[in-house]
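Re: your question from the hallway

Yes, I did run it. Sequences:
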Amino acid sequence: KAGVTQTPRYLIKTRGQQVTLSCSPISGHRSVSWYQQTPGQGLQFLFEYFSETQRNKGNFPGRFSGRQFSNSRSEMNVSTLELGDSALYLCASSFTKRGPDTEAFFGQGTRLTVV
Amino acid sequence: QKEVEQNSGPLSVPEGAIASLNCTYSDRGSQSFFWYRQYSGKSPELIMFIYSNGDKEDGRFTAQLNKASQYVSLLIRDSQPSDSATYLCAGPPGGNNRKLIWGLGTSLAVNP
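Structure:
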């Protein structure tokens, strides 16, 4: 069974540009969450999508957006990049069942560097 | 603000010893917790999850949950150098909100 796939693995962008990251969840998983990870802040939740709808959102500016397609694949977009957006962006998929608690399986991440 | 807190470490133990990692949480409604391991430059991987008060054992790993005291711990017996990593604790808020809240992680170094 294939795991969570994120593309690209590495990106270098300049300030002001925009970037789109992609995540394909584990087959059968309908929930996709996005996280930003930096050494000082740890894992910061960006948003979660379930069945093409944003179900939860973290405390990030509107420059960060996402969407989910009918096949559960998800993309996140960051516009007007800033130096502080340099981070590891992780996608996690979950098989959501009844009940509030579901473990997440992570992709390998996209390392974004803004110069 | 609902939080999950961990001692950042680094925690250093000799090979073969027991490593004890702790996590406290603020939301009494949290029903379950997850322990993830993250090697440097890699993504987090799930080690264990625990729903009930008490201990849950899986090989060399034991998770302990104490809801009254609002802490969860992970014990690693017979620590190996390959256990050297950052360990992340995560728990959801109470209710049906599935958004995991993460601690910043504890760095563990197992010395040969």
